[in-house]
Amino acid sequence: MFCDAWIDGVPQGPVAADIVDGDLGAAHGVCPTTSIGLTAGGNAIVELENLYGRIRATGTLTGSYALSDRAELYAKVEAVRFDTIITAISVTGIGPGYTDVGASYRLLEGPHAALGLHGTLVLPTAFTLDQHSWPLGVDVGADGVYAVKDNFLLHASVVPNFGAALGGGPAYPAFGVNLDLGAEWKPFKRFGVVLDGISAFGRTDVLDYAGVGVGFRGGIGDHFGLSLEARAPLVGKARELAGADLRGTWRF
Amino acid sequence: MLLLLLAACDHPTCLDGTNDCEMPSPCADLALTCDGGTSEVRVLGPGDPVPGGMDALASPGDILLANDKVQVVIDALDHPHYIAPTGGAILDMSITGKDDDSVRHIFQATGLLPEEAFHYTSLEVIEDGDIKAVQAIGTLDGYPDIPVATRYEIRPCEPGVRVRTEISNGTSDAISLYLTDAFYWGGRELIPFTPRAGSGFTHPSFGLGDIVTAFFDVPFMVAALHSPPASSVGVLSCDDDTLSGFQSDNVSAMGLAPRVFPSRDWEIYERFIFLGEGAGVSSAADIAYDLKKTLFGEAYVTVSGTIEAPGGTLGETMRAMLEITDSDEVPVTQVLPAADGTWSARVPANRSYTIQAEAFGVPAGSDTFEAGTSDVDAGTLTLDAVGEVSIDVTVDGVADHALVFVIPADDATAEATAATVYGFFDDCAPMLGFTHGGSPACNRVLVNGPTTVALPPGTYDFYTSRGPFSTLGAARGVKVEAVTGQSVSLAVETLDLQPVGTLSGDFHVHGGKSFDANIPDVDRVEAFVASGIDVIISTEHDAVNDYAAAIEQLGVADRLLLVTGTESTGHLLWRYRTDYGFPQVIGHWMFWPMPYDPEGPYRGAAYDEKAEPGTLFTREVAAGWDRDNGVNQLNHPYGGAQFGRDYSWASAAGFDQTKPLATEYDGSGQSLFFHTPEGADYSNADYDVQEVMNGTKNENLIQYRSFWYYLLNQGIVRGGTANSDSHSLVENVLGTPRNVVFTSTTREAFDVGTFDADVRAGHILGTNGPVILANIAEHTPGLTSFTPGDSDVLHVVVRAAPWVPVDEVRIVVNGEVKQTITDLVVPVDPFGTADLDRLDTDVALTDLLPASGDAYIVVEAGHALMEQADLDCNGLVDTGDNNGDGTIDWQDVADLTEDPGVDCLDTVGPLAEPPEPERDTPDWFFRSVTPNGYAAAFTNPFLFDRDGDGAYTGVK
């Protein structure tokens, strides 16, 4: 079956570098895994014309647990989050970031394809950043993958998402849909590349952004994987210049 | 549990996008009571009484919050002032019944950028029993998704206003949040005091690029005037024991510590802004310590004592000031003793303190005391004794108004008396009074009949003149001893120097209504008279003032021709150039005559923000400026910026003098000159005259004339003017320089229309001393061109008072000095009346003009100009030979320490200035009444049409 054929140390799935806080609306892999990982990531906004720049850097712990060959629980904890706003009065904040918890379930699987659902809850654990509000997020997405060849996959995901704040202030509810379409190619057994078309709609505007994601992935043995990935909005309302991360994963 | 916690928190209430909300009362832990307290809130209507004072600008539509102690004016939404994009800010604050408004403007912002100011869209009056409030709701100016709301609340018995501000981030991105009140002092007025170790009145200097280094946490801030009528304003947080911000005499900011403000987060800031009666810090600081006891349980005690100060009168500014500092070097307050020498102030309990006394700005004694938990008597502190001098001035034998300069006669006296007001403003020696207040100010005294001033012991020279066309009155080497009194008499005579058929005029004069001036109207009018000027154009920044009450009080209506005008001064930064990355303003522009409207929000001037010059001209016409019969003037074309606000149009537009001005608009600075903004009736070029000389120091003459010649070379003909830009009795001397306007109207039958027509026509000599009379046949300087005859000569006569050194006369042809004449008469006695005639000569035009083509001539006289160079390759000289090595290069640039290795530098300046004169030389005497200046005068151009097209159209 598909998931059995693609289990090794090389990371899989859509480009994971996040743009939105807590990575709300992110795609998720179809095949359940049990893994732990460490990610160093960041993204930046550079708007010289507005005298505004933002750099965000995170150190994130990730983990997943395959409950069965269909179901997985996963979590992502931004253990350290660094934010700096560069403007006339520049400011910097450092502390814990957001926490994601979620679950996925593979609905269908064949020799060349698989389809699953996932749901993620973004918890307001950035206590030093969000000093008064409690921003929450939730998304439920469908993720699919199709193996065109043994070393070439196509993947797609549609992830409706919703965010709002508790805490007595305005909730600022926002509903959106993320759409990712991409391809993974493994020219070598321990090395692969991924190229995604990324897009998001409805959260801040009709088109939040449309752009590209690219990643380079390698594996050492059957368990350890390393990836360097980046996403960059090209059009739309999103102000991010790019987001990138370096991720190491141990797959059990 | 979480919900319980949330329910217990203080939440924003007016940030959900609707206006049908009411913010809770701020500062719930504050409780001040009294008997018979009152409170009121009302929208001001026509004719309503409003708070008075030099900074007062309340007008109908504004909202008055008042109680038995203070009055606070919130400006109407459509009456914005200064840096705030809309109304809804604190415009005036005064002690009830005192008319002592010293608060320029207090508004809210989250940062320094224009889009980070609060833009209010609704103002609502709230009454709840004795609680009266105004609630303002809106958004950040550049972020419609970031709602803001502020409640100003007043209750009986409270010496200030409670303020609560709410903000939330409705954008999807984090921003920098510095939730603050911006206190716009304007300069030359209030100076902030913060009780922080090593601070007090001492604050780090900063620029917009390194402002974060100037941020400090302080328990409270008080800003104090040191010149009556005065009140002192302060602020402290109701929730935290510190506030965060920066201080300067231009702007202070006090608010919450800056932080990252993520999407969907919110913040609340509650504080109390209070007012203390009188000059100095303690009146407001006493309130702060009382409030901190109520809010945070911090105990204080009252310390009192007595000052003995032999000589002079206590209670006057600068005679005696006490700063009290604890053992951790935290200045906690500052006190001005009463006239009987008694003083008291509140200080934190349980500390050891030092009292440092200053007299005339220099240390004058100190003492210590211990403060426990009970009030303390600090005893008597005796200051060094001073002397007194009675000064009398006669003008043409009659006692009259005069401005007297008191100057140390020897280096020892200069060194012993040199002082500043706690590091602010100019050095003064001696510091007789608050630098920018009424007389005495710095080392200057207004005299009208015998006038007594206290002076530290030493030897002094006393000088006065009635402008540049009189003798120099002097009493030199007067020895002042402690506790003794003596008299000084000065006599000046009017000299036959001002040409017949002229009126002198100063077209750039500020008083207390200007945001950066603090001189009372009466002192200002006395200075008008003392200057000997015929015509004063009163030109307050962004306002109009007719000085009617002061003129009437002094009874000098028959001695002054005062025309009301205004100096438009941009505050709101905006982007109008496509080739420049930062928002700007358009510099300063003058308009007269303007109708004075005592109830208008700008007293008759137009709202002038975010407008190119052409739009500004259109707005001023709508406000009542008579375009056809009045004058608009480009002020000081080149200059820097104050808190990022450009002083000067040519600098802001970045005109490159190596290239002609662009006639097609493309958004670039070079194309702005001729641009007609959308909706405007005029182009940016539709102004009449420009300043060629500005200020007594006259340091930028060479750049201003450069721009004038640059325009003349292109056939853009504008008159040149010379103005003092005086803001007080200090810095610039009113009437120096001045315009001598050749006009048919007279003092006795003055017609402003005729006068202005001659100004527009360039019938002006600009001077701070030399008088240049030039003619070519029957033609005199002006903006009407003529065709000279083949045998015509330029006839030049130069005259000046004996104390005005005229080293050379320059004949400028097409912007270049063609001939310099240095063989001039040198007066024998600078204090005499002889040797007025310095030069009388003819120069053939054939020796001056090129063989053909249109041309122009300007005649200049005075001190030799310092050599300067253009190091940034824009055609404008910018740097002098500051290291004296004979060449002008990168090593002369103050901010360069190594060779940048490029032909055109990015960093340049400063210009070289004439050297400091030796004591008792002609230049020294000139500077005694023309501080830091050098003699200079210029004619307007002779314009020659020599290509037969009927007009001067530029140098080809």
**What is the domain tally of chain A?**
1
E-strand count of chain A: 13
- Helix amount of chain A, in percent? under 10%
Identify the overall geometry of chain B: globular
Strands of chain B, total number: 57
CATH topology of chain A, which one?
Lipocalin
User: What is the CATH topology classification name of the largest domain in chain B?
Assistant: Beta-galactosidase, Chain A, domain 5
In terms of DSSP E residues, the strand content of chain B is 35-45%
Major β-sheet annotation of chain B? 14 strands, mixed
The CATH class label of the largest domain in chain B is: Mainly Beta
Assign the CATH architecture of chain A.
Answer: Beta Barrel
Give the end-to-end Cα distance of chain A, rounded to a whole number of Å.
19 Å
Instruction: Quote the average pLDDT of chain A.
Output: 93
- The radius of gyration over CA of chain A amounts to 18 Å
Q: Which CATH first-tier class of chain A would you pick? A: Mainly Beta
- Report low-confidence residues of chain A grouped into runs of 5 or more: none
Number of domains of chain B: 6
Class of secondary structure makeup of chain B: mainly beta
